Amino acid sequence: MSVMGRLALGNFISRQHLCLTTMYDIGGKIMTENKNMTPVAENVVTKCNKCKIQLDHVVISHNTEGFIEKVKCLTCGSEHKYSPEKEKLPRKKTVRAKKVDPARDFDLLTEKFKGKKPVRYAMSGSFKAEDVIDHNTFGMGIVISTFNKQMDVVFSDRPRILVFNREEMETSR
């Protein structure tokens, strides 16, 4: 068989393969069953790495499996690696925390601890959860939790984080 005959046969086989893997829409445009296997010189919509948006591109090359490898943006003209669209997974619904009214929480806690005598707050003082404190600026507060020389305290306006057991600060002055 001559060289021309082999080229014609090869061309026929590739066209036959193309016909098996493609469909035609009503307008006569070639549409592939798998978008990632669009024929060379056909248009495909994908994200342009330079423009950063979804635009029309022309397919430049395929890899050995027949999948698109390189495309050229029809808007900016840049050639880049084809990145197929990722499947969008449904977003998980986030559970929003209920808005807390600190005044209401403070009122509930004061009812619970109204028999306790408030302790004067000082950074060098030692406190534990469920202590009632009296702060110079913020007023009466209730210790919710303590961790690593810090405590969560609920005051009438809002919760705050205060320090305690800071004796080294008192002696360094």
Task: Write a compact overview of the structure shown.
The protein has 173 residues and is an alpha+beta fold. It contains three helices and eleven strands, in the order H-E-E-E-E-E-E-H-E-E-E-E-E-H.
List the helices and strands and how they pair.
Elements: H1 3-21, E1 22-24, E2 30-32, E3 43-47, E4 54-62, E5 68-73, E6 79-81, H2 102-112, E7 119-120, E8 132-135, E9 139-147, E10 150-155, E11 159-163, H3 167-171
Parallel strand pairs: 7-8
Antiparallel strand pairs: 1-2, 3-4, 4-5, 5-6, 8-9, 9-10, 10-11
Task: Give an overview in words.
Strands 7-8-9-10-11 form a five-stranded mixed β-sheet. A four-stranded antiparallel β-sheet has the order 3-4-5-6, with no helix packed on it. Strands 1-2 form a two-stranded antiparallel ribbon. Mean pLDDT is 75; it is low at 6-31. It has helices at 3-21, 102-112, 167-171; strands at 22-24, 30-32, 43-47, 54-62, 68-73, 79-81, 119-120, 132-135, 139-147, 150-155, 159-163. A hairpin with a 5-residue loop joins strand 4 and strand 5 (68-73). The protein folds into two domains: 32-85, SH3 type barrels, CATH 2.30.30; 102-171, no CATH class. It is α+β, with helices and mostly antiparallel strands. The longest helix is centred in the first third of the chain and has 19 residues, at 3-21.
Largest sheet: 5 strands, mixed
Number of domains: 2
Instruction: Name the strands of the widest sheet in spatial order.
Output: 7-8-9-10-11
**SSE pattern, N- to C-terminal:** HEEEEEEHEEEEEH
Q: Mean of the pLDDT scores?
A: 75
> Structural class of the secondary elements?
alpha+beta
Q: Find the count of extended strands (DSSP E, 2+ residues).
A: 11
| Overall spatial form | rod-shaped
Task: Report the portion of residues in β strands.
Answer: 25-35%
N- to C-terminal separation? 101 Å
Number of helices: 3
Roughly what percent helix? 10-25%
Uncertain residue segments: 6-31
Rounded radius of gyration (Å): 36 Å
